[in-house]
Amino acid sequence: MARNYQQTGDVLTYLNDSSQSYQSGDVVVFGQRIGVALSDIAVDDLEAIQVVGVFELPKASEDILTGALLFWDSNQQQMTLIADGNTPAGCAFANAEAADAYVDIKINA
């Protein structure tokens, strides 16, 4: 193993310096990426967020095809195909129809 290897990078420690708390499973925006809270995170708490993996997350009323790039709309609290003003989130792991409430997404892909 390389001498400079640190870790797999699936989970990072996140300091919630925002004004909102998160529940386990919520999307957490950090910089220009997202993670998923692994436990509840109160304001000013330091907790783990998952930054790699496939998650079922809420989505906009759009047809989404496997492999489509998805973005997190913080205002609507959902995934969307619209990049403008939203945070890069990953790619669709499965098709989702407009009527579906959720999409499987490989985050940060």
Head-to-tail CA distance between termini: 24 Å
Number of strands: 9
Could you tell me the mean pLDDT?
97
SSE order: EEEEEEEEE
Provide the β-strand percentage band. 35-45%
The biggest beta sheet reads: 5 strands, antiparallel
* Helix content estimate: under 10%
**Major sheet: arrangement of strands:** 5-9-8-6-7
In terms of structural class, how would the helical and strand content be classed? mainly beta
Name the poorly predicted regions: none
- How many helix segments? 0
Q: Whole-number radius of gyration? A: 14 Å
Q: Which geometry do the CA atoms define?
A: globular
Give a verbal description of the structure.
The protein has 109 residues and is mainly beta. The chain contains no helices and 9 strands. The strands form 2 sheets. It has a 5-stranded antiparallel sheet with strand order 5-9-8-6-7, with no helix packed on it. The protein is globular, with a radius of gyration of 14 Å.
